[in-house]
Amino acid sequence: MTNSGGVGRVESKRARFETPLSLRCGATLPAYELVYETYGTLNAAKSNAILVCHALSGHHHVAGHYADAPDNIGWWDNIIGPGRPLDTDRFFIVGVNNLGGCHGSTGPSSTNPASGKPWGADFPLVAVIDWVHAQARLADLLGIESWAAVVGGSLGGMQALRWAITYPQRVRHSLVIAAAPRLSAQNIAFNDVARQAILSDPDFHGGHYYEHGTAPKRGLRLARMLGHITYLSDDQMGEKFGRELRNGAFSFGYGVEFEIESYLRYQGDKFAGYFDANTYLLMTKALDYFDPAREDAGDLRATMGRTRAGFLVVSFTTDWRFSPARSKEIVHALLANGRDVSYAEIDLNSGHDSFLMADPHYHGIIAAYLRNVKI
Amino acid sequence: MTNTLGRPDLDVIAGWIQPGESVLDLGCGEGALLRILRQGRGARCWGVEIDPANVLAAIANGVNVIQCDLEGGLTGFEDGAFDHVVLSRTLQTVRHTQGILAEMLRVGREAVVSFPNFAYWKNRMAVMAGRMPVSEDLPYQWFDTPNVRFFTIDDFESLCSQMGLVVRERMVLDDKGKLIEEEQNFLGSLAVYRLKR
After folding, report:
1. For A53-62, what is each residue's pLDDT tens digit?
2. Per the domain annotation, does B2 fall within a domain?
3. A371 vs B contacts (CB less than 8 Å)
4. Do residues B75 and B51 make contact, with C-beta atoms less than 8 angstroms apart?
5. Domain total for chain B?
6. Domain of B95: which CATH number?
7. Is the interface score ipTM higher than 0.85?
8. Active site residues of A
9. A239: Cβ–Cβ under 8 A, 6 or more apart, which residues?
């Protein structure tokens, strides 16, 4: 797979922070490391930086490829590069793996300095606000006083929202894509079934599976299969798989028969092969806890009154995980405060995953908005 | 009066907006009016638009635009949130005429409405000649038009009084954009209103 027109070869970097970080859950991380990547050039005024926040299973490798792994292309490569919506000829793009992640930043699989063993289940539950505080320290390190924009989809969009609320002076624009101001009971329900799949796997060992030389892959596989259903739309699944049978006839057993089963099992297996179950647990809890309006007794309007950024809110018609109605809650809370906000509802059939698609209209909206961002 | 983008009604509307006031433009298209109001009048502006291409163009024009279907009303917009709610050359394309007028005056202190006057003499002439009018202000063929409601200045004012809406100001223009003071329902091609409850 080639990657013409993108940012090309990239390298990941690592930053160590020795100042303790107080977390939302009450715990303190004495020190931590963040891995990150940057694309484009930071201008002299350091005014052209865009932070890209990742979702549940994402990481710092947002665009480009590595010299020693040309096929390992960043998860949002299609939107970043010279002339692309997140234009590296104009902007300096930063991608970071969040705390608790499993792609190099400090997380459950890192060594707990207190025990000399992997943190495992002892790694504190980190919240979206903790990620934002940690990202702010990375911004300090890079000399970025304020982001031209913070951009994210899904859980990444929640970080973009949280940034604008918690650091209003440090975010000039917030691009909140396929997100929600808080999870619904149904969203939490799906997350809990996913967690139960992991927690009830005999290989979980209370989260300390690293010491047993194993991993709860069966649970993680189930969690991913379930999650994957919520990322796609019914229509798309119907179009892509329908009721197609792998062997053309019923076999009256529990093996793989329908194409959709094959697809989901493949996705589950692939994911369980590289992702850490403790990170998955932690990320889903961060989603469940996300509710910035909780600080204002549930009044989202009051919460959004603390923002100063311009907003672009984007939703997708077939996204039933975080439906357009959820994005509109954010839009109307901003409007009620007289904030600058634009809202686009994109007609794409890929459900929640639409935010990763290279659709010309969708990308046109992002590109048009960012072209008007002053640097 | 300066002619802006060939849309003299926009100049009339701009003249009614004071600096710093908030404006919601329903069916804002590519955001032409909002740009004028923001840059020329220092207003705080938002638009509502349903067409994806127009939403993209409005964002490219640097104006705030909310993608939303007006037929669904203005659900989610707070009462009295805007100083002015504008519906320029769009009322004739909306099915729920009374609903949208009521919604405009729910979310805005004042409604600003412009629409083509079907009773304009040139339109009457066209109908007299046996054909539906096609003109500067009614630029569509009958079989390919976004317009679903055809009404006159007198019709509109009758509806306003029926709904208890107060006409604060009315400006009527002919098809050259010239102000018409007399026989407005006959000589006027386009009407622009300021309404309040």
Report:
1. 999 999 999 9
2. no
3. 60
4. no
5. 1
6. 3.40.50.150
7. yes
8. 154, 319, 352
9. A349
